[in-house]
Amino acid sequence: MGGARSWVPLVDSSIDIVYARQVLHHAAELERLMSEVARVLRPGGVLMACREHVVDSESQKQAFLNSHPVHRLAGGECLFPSAVPGCDPRQWSFADSPD
Q1: Residues sharing a CB contact under 8 Å with residue 75, sequence separation 6 or more, in sequence order
Q2: In contact, 25 and 77? CB cutoff 8 Å
Q3: Radius of gyration of the chain (CA)
Q4: Are the C-beta atoms of 51 and 20 separated by less than 8 Å?
Q5: Average pLDDT score over residue span 41-49
Q6: Quick check: 38 pLDDT over 60?
Q7: How far is Cα 42 from Cα 87, in angstroms, rounded to an integer?
């Protein structure tokens, strides 16, 4: 599927599940990407994101980037502090669980 970084070429409310493995930390515009995910998910749809890098401070971010072999060669790692709105997985809401 084609697309441009934070733009997903799908119609609104057309997807049941978005699976993002090691994707979110590459988004230069995380809020825009998350808006696109929300746009294409059907009501009650699920975002499954795993293996994301979340840091708690600028020093953690720099330590990670300095030790990351791919980032040293190509760049493109966009770690986000958990304090940025929408970036803390503990604050994300998910589909309601059946009772």
Answers
A1: none
A2: yes
A3: 15
A4: no
A5: 90
A6: yes
A7: 21
| Residue ranges covered by each domain of the chain | 15-89
> What is the distance in angstroms between the CA of the first residue and the CA of the last residue of the chain?
36
Query: Which amino acid is residue 55, in one-letter code?
Result: V
Q: Which two tokens stand for residue 41?
A: 């998910």
- Torsions phi, psi for 19 (to 5 deg): -110, 120
58-78: pLDDT as tens digits: 888 888 888 888 777 777 777
Q: What is the mean pLDDT of residues 31-54?
A: 86
pLDDT in tens, 46-55: 988 887 777 7
Has this prediction a pTM greater than 0.85?
A: no
**Residue 25, exposed/middle/buried by CB under 10 A (0-12, 13-18, 19+)?**
buried
Length of the chain: 99
Vertex 56 angle, CA 52 and 60, to 5°: 85
Please give the structure tokens belonging to residue 47.
């975002």
